[in-house]
Design a protein that fits this description.
heterodimer; A: mainly alpha; about 0% strand; B: alpha+beta; 4-stranded antiparallel sheet; two-stranded antiparallel ribbon; about 35% strand; flat
Chain lengths: ~400, ~120
């Protein structure tokens, strides 16, 4: 196998291997270190030799042995070793590939541990990306606009909390399932917002898109009967499908309705549509399915040549009932403007006015957009200035500055 | 098994007045019921109710010197009003019991107890 191919296969095997090691040894650091040791060993051992049929199985056995070796060396963990079931761990590493051992699939357990509600939401996202997906701490730090040592400390604290507070290494029992799953979905949603918000299409966070997509797909694979899990996975796929169209050559944000849909990824859109059908067949609607349905309706512009704004407005109306909030209300108002005219949209935005939205950039940006449509250039320019005062990310700043120039021209 | 201390930080003022007395009676009854549920589930536990924060005395140390003060150490509206110590398998089980502790207004803090023996002791 080529070096790149071997590396990719090792990365692909990571979640299953780390999860299995974490479930067995009940320690995230041991699992991560065991995987890293095994991966390094594999890169050396198979550089010039054919790799085993299942690289994941090999990494799991090698990682487990490395961890047990380490535990044996560390006397303070003697009790842990005694608690391990007896098995033949004495063979030479070279002989591992002779075993055709299945890795127990513990990925879901690992996700539930990293997304435990006793961990702060931001730390949950970071920990899941680090431990489950293996994203380097530097990249996670960049996405959170934090210095790497600060992020490393946050991860260490979260792992210590899991260890010391007794977060269980079990899949939650049925009576806790709803609360714990909600915590997993909320974690993934933060990751999604971080990686994909069109307004945040600037370099460091956009980089996380494929990792969040991988995590969402994994969850949909592991929990195929939960419609909201499928909805959230579809939402992430649809966001990832638009990646190439989100910013122009100068790094300026392009709003969804103005994106070149020729650049959207048909494979991901098709996959999201199938997930949505499966979710619908399960017969329980929810906010993530509604959000995905809104994005899927936008995606249909590629096939149908136009956007069904009336359908999108209805979906926003439903979303306002299930999960009201300023972002939903603002998006609904902008959609209303498409259906009933800019004045109607503006009226809906102005109805939200108050201290809460005064400091909220999307509200000013949406008002500016609709004021410009009604021909109120001064009002629009003032609103664009207010939006620019509220620290937009680079891509959005370039967009708002261009719009401001248009209204002032 | 792990031991957790469940600390009840509550606003004592809700128990003032005739309405408050009724609320207190209900809350105490709910504590009794919770104790019975813990016994029924085979969870070993202990717990105490504390007298109001107005009865508290605090000793504060600074560079080896100490001073004795009247009152609780924190100036918060929510005082430590009582606690449970329970023996359960993990944090999820502790949280399940913690959610059943009656607190009309306040918060509950869950802290694992440092084991007397073990790798880190």
């Amino acid at each position: 196998m080529s070096r790149g191919g071997l590396g990719a296969a090792i990365i692909a095997a990571r979640p299953a291997v780390v999860a299995a090691l974490a479930a067995r040894f009940r320690d995230l650091d041991l699992a991560e270190d065991g995987f890293a040791d095994a991966a390094e060993l594999a890169m050396r051992q198979f550089a010039d030799a054919p790799p085993p049929a299942s690289i994941g199985g090999w990494l799991h056995v090698a990682g487990r042995r490395r961890i047990i070796d380490r535990l044996r060396r560390e006397a303070r963990l003697a009790e842990l070793i005694a608690a391990q079931p007896e098995d033949a761990e004495g063979e030479e590493m070279q002989a591992i590939s002779l075993f055709d051992e299945q890795i127990p699939d513990e990925r879901l357990r690992l996700i539930f541990i990293c997304c435990h509600p006793a961990i702060s939401p931001e730390a949950r996202v970071a920990l899941t990306l680090r431990v489950v997906c293996g994203v380097p701490t530097e990249r996670i730090a960049a996405a959170f606009l934090m210095a790497t040592p600060a992020m490393a400390q946050r991860l260490t604290r979260a792992k210590a909390k899991i260890r010391e507070a007794g977060v269980p290494f079990e899949t939650p029992p049925p009576h806790l399932w709803a609360e714990r799953l909600q915590s997993v979905l909320a974690t993934l949603e933060i990751g999604y917002a971080l990686a994909f918000q069109d307004a945040a299409g600037s370099e460091p966070t956009a980089d996380l898109g494929p990792e969040v997509l991988r995590l969402a797909d994994m969850l949909a694979e592991l929990l195929p009967d939960d419609p909201e899990v499928l909805g959230l996975a579809a939402l992430v796929q649809l966001a990832e499908a638009r990646r190439a169209a989100r910013v122009d050559g100068a790094g300026r944000m392009i709003p969804l309705s103005e994106q070149d849909c020729g650049l959207w990824d048909d494979r991901l859109i098709g996959s999201a549509a199938r997930l949505m059908q499966r979710a619908a067949a399960l017969g329980r609607s929810g906010p993530y399915q509604l959000m995905a349905a809104i994005h899927l309706t936008h995606a249909r512009r590629k096939a149908e040549g136009q956007t069904d704004w009336t359908a999108i407005l209805k979906l926003y109306d439903m979303l306002m009932l299930l999960r009201p909030g300023p972002v939903v209300a603002i998006n609904r108002a902008v959609t209303l403007a498409r259906v009933e005219g800019a004045q109607a949209g503006l009226a809906a935005l102005d109805a939200l006015a108050g201290d809460a939205v005064e400091r909220f950039r999307p509200w000013h940006a949406a008002r500016a957009h609709l004021l410009a449509k009604t021909g109120d250039r001064d009002g629009a320019a003032a609103a664009y200035c207010k939006a620019l005062d509220l620290n937009p990310a680079r891509a959005e700043r370039l967009f708002l500055e261009a719009k401001l120039r248009e209204t002032s021209a | 098994m792990m031991q957790y201390m469940l600390m009840i930080h509550e606003d004592e003022s809700v128990y003032a007045g005739p309405e408050g007395e009724k609320l207190l009676a209900e809350t105490l009854a709910a504590h009794m019921a919770l104790g019975e549920a813990l016994v029924a589930a085979g969870v070993s536990y202990s717990g105490e109710r504390l007298k109001p924060a107005s009865t508290a005395t605090t000793i504060r140390w600074n560079r080896g010197e100490h001073q004795i003060h009247d009152g609780a150490f924190s100036e918060s509206h929510e005082e430590l009003g009582g606690f449970y110590i329970i023996d359960v398998a993990n944090l999820d089980e502790a949280l399940q019991w913690a959610k059943r502790i009656p607190i009309p207004r306040g918060a509950l803090e869950i802290r694992p107890i440092w084991p007397m023996s073990g790798p880190d002791a």
